[in-house]
Design a protein that fits this description.
With about 130 residues, the chain is mainly β. It contains 2 helices and 9 strands, in the order βββββββααββ.
Length: about 130
């Protein structure tokens, strides 16, 4: 899932769902052992594979170019804010430990039933906990 462009506009961030395997030029975040996102620059490629009901699906993610726009217009920013994906918000909610409520602008510590109406949502891998 495309998450956005890093500050400076030179690289794009793609979130990885649980069970996704990858190999390529991308930088893992937060780290290689638990890779929840891949950061790619223009011209970089990442090979992605993930389980499906019929076996492994293999894709190549190639970032051709990065374009970003900065606006100082309230109406343009608001229009961009209002364009969101329900499935994407659900995937983010499954990325516990935090969730964001768009309706009231609050952050909470658990996903709860945020995705009960999105059966295809896949949780992101979480960082290992220290004991």
């Amino acid at each position: 899932m495309f998450m956005g462009v890093l500050a400076g506009g030179g690289k794009a961030v793609f979130a990885l769902g649980q069970g996704v395997r990858h190999q390529g030029q991308g930088d893992c975040r937060p780290h290689r052992r638990v890779c929840a996102a891949i950061v790619l620059g223009a011209g970089q490629t990442e090979q992605i594979s993930f389980p499906t009901d019929s076996g492994q699906q293999h894709l190549v993610l190639r970032l051709v170019a990065v374009h970003s726009t900065v606006t100082h217009s309230h109406s343009t920013a608001l229009a961009a804010y209002e364009r969101h994906s329900a499935a994407g918000l659900c995937d983010l909610a499954l990325a516990a430990p935090m969730t964001y409520s768009q309706s009231d602008g609050t952050v909470s510590g658990t996903a709860g039933t945020a995705c009960h109406d999105q059966p295809a949502a896949i949780p992101f891998p979480s960082a290992p906990t220290s004991q």
